[in-house]
Known about the structure:
The protein is an alpha+beta fold. 32% of the residues lie in helices and 23% in strands. It has 2 domains: 37-154, CATH 3.30.1330.10; 158-346, PurM-like C-terminal domain (Phosphoribosyl-aminoimidazole Synthetase, Chain A, domain 2, Alpha-Beta Complex), CATH 3.90.650.10. The two termini are 22 Å apart.
Amino acid sequence: MAEKNGQxxxxxxxxxxxxxxxxxxTILKYLGDTKSPGFVEVPLNFLDDAAVVDDIVLKSDSxxxxxxxxxxxxxxxxxxxxxxxxxxxxxxxxxxxxCGLVLEEGLSTADLERILRSMRDACVEAGVGVVTGDxxxxxxxxxxxxxxxxxxxxxxxxALEKNMLVVKKFRxxxxxxxxxxxxxxxxxxxxxxxxxxxxxxxxxxAQEGLSFGSEIKSDVRPLNRLIxxxxxxxxxxxxxxxxTRGGLADALNEFCDKSGVGILxxxxxxxxxxxxxxxxxxxxxxxxxxxxxxxxxxxxxxxxAEEVLTLLRSTEEGKDAEIVGETNVNFKGxxxxxxxxxxxxxxxxxxxxVPRIC
Length: 358
């Protein structure tokens, strides 16, 4: 059950239907109609990955991954990448970050320095800096090491403008100035930039001390420079998300809910590592619902899909990219054409099956 005596449970922070209900029915009830003195083009109640105020993209993201170190990354790399990617998927260029550290008493200074080095390295990869912040310390046993909030701002780019001109070439009625979840229409292609489920399985292996017979590593990385290339060199992108909590299933259902379309996937086209697939089968998990931190889901006009795919595959971050499906206005929600010939519904998950993955 999501609620226990009217209290918050772990499911309320796990993506999926329970968390979305909390945001829509409780948080937005109090904060959804607060006013800003600036012009708010993409407000809180749009529930996109970031907001837009006076052509500045604003994002705040808190990270409480447990454990704070996991195969392929740590909480520091995750905190920078998560905020940078949420700004970039709207089509903006992140240019300044603020960092809030909440440290648990007893955290070793060596571990703190390891985290900070990871944050610095991720900033160098993304080409963005931390310009302000705050640090607090709480009692031992409160956090599992530390919690990090990273907020950031981004700005419009010539690459975004170029992308939108390409979109309007094929969709004469297209009006949006930003890449939003609500921009999809029928007949557009859905691309996944790489294998799904890697991050969630890596964190789960660290949480439970599991070995899957191979080294599954998190995919966590900043993707803003990759996204900038896609907008500049290919274009035609109308929607983008990083499929974090709730995985691909949650991200695609959000596209459908906001755009009013259906999405039909080809099961055999969705890229999944064999060791991730085997681990999910062993644990009874659905890889479609497991979170990622270094992948993007892209909605693109069909005329540009192959070009976007080719460009993605030419990069290290997108070498395993695939066109996995297409939007359809004749039904709502997400369905998948299975490899054995039938179809099944991919519902929005109740929550990510792996707790505290980000």
